[in-house]
Design goal:
The protein is an alpha/beta fold. It is built from 13 helices and five strands. Helices cover 52% and strands 10% of the residues. Bound molecules: adenosine-5'-triphosphate, magnesium ion (MG) and zinc ion (ZN). Zinc ion binds next to loops.
Length: 263
């Protein structure tokens, strides 16, 4: 019989990584012995506790990892809470306020429209929202607009993908990054309609949508994607402007620092 672990390693190109994973699974955590929870002095009261109060750290980590993967947030931004904000402090303060009041935001379907040039911190700020949502046990999706379009296109005539997409767009919080001029050119009436439909449905269901764009103003989005979308967005979202700046020097320094690693 094929066990679940055999199935995991029966995967050609990924076998190496899977073997390592198998080893990890078969070497139980030293703290809990692989049970995933720790029994305290009083033990676990299975009648009253919905779940044991003290999950072992190994289980917490695994659960966080799964949630991070499911959120779609690129690994590069998993540490976004650690970024020391040096610029665009007012914009980050606005994001902080949103995070602090996130229960209300979700309850009333309040979103944000983050606007600003490349490299000003928009994705970093949205990643902080993703991480905060995960901490609060909310379901959250981060997706770039080009990837969303790709998914929408592929899901046409593919029932399974259509179902996946339908599930993704009803998460508690949805963040659509990289809505930009460059993609508009490849866009179409179909794309406009789909984006409009998703955002409209979410508003109808009182679910917040956060849009991030390289456009500088809301008017520019209107020029690019139409009045209809902007009016739905504005009815429940607040624009947050990120100021431009040239961060290339800083990035070059960071490159040198990382390259010099281990010297
Ligand atoms: N205000 C800031 N303070 C400190 N670091 C920042 C700030 N803004 C951006 N950074 C750093 O600059 C890099 C780029 O930031 P980020 O990817 O969030 O920008 P972006 O606005 O999403 O850019 P793009 O439009 O190209 O996607 C990251 O490494 C981030 O940590
Ligand atoms: Mg970005
Ligand atoms: Zn453990």
């Amino acid at each position: 019989m094929t066990t679940a672990i055999d199935w995991l390693i029966d995967d050609g190109a990924r076998a190496q990584a899977a073997l390592k994973f198998k080893e990890q699974i078969q070497t139980p955590c030293e703290i809990c012995g692989g049970k995933g929870y720790i029994v305290g002095d009083e033990g676990i009261d299975y009648d009253t506790a919905a779940r044991p109060a003290d999950w072992c750290v190994c289980r917490r980590k695994l659960s966080l990892l799964i949630r991070l993967m499911e959120s779609g947030l690129p690994r590069e931004f998993w540490q976004a809470e650690k970024v020391k904000v040096r610029r665009n402090k007012p914009a980050f303060a606005e994001i902080r306020r949103y995070i602090d009041k996130m229960e209300n935001a979700v309850k009333h379907g309040l979103g944000l429209i983050m606007l600003g040039e490349n490299g000003v911190g928009k994705t970093t700020a949205s990643a902080q929202i993703v991480l905060a949502a995960i901490r609060r046990n909310m379901s959250v999706l981060y997706i770039t607009f080009p990837n969303l379009i790709h998914l929408i296109r592929k899901s046409q005539g593919d029932e399974w993908l259509a179902e996946v997409l339908a599930d993704l767009v009803v998460r508690d919080v949805m963040i659509i990054d990289e809505l930009g001029k460059e993609y508009k050119r490849t866009g179409s009436a179909f794309v406009d309609t789909e984006l409009d439909r998703i955002v409209r449905n979410r508003r109808g269901d009182i679910r917040p949508t956060i849009i991030i764009s390289n456009y500088e103003t809301v008017d520019d989005i209107e020029d690019g994607y139409g009045k209809s979308l902007v009016s739905v967005l504005l009815s429940r979202s607040k624009p947050v402007q990120f100021a431009p700046g040239d961060y290339r020097d800083e990035q070059a320094k960071e490159f040198d620092r990382l390259l010099g690693d281990g010297e």
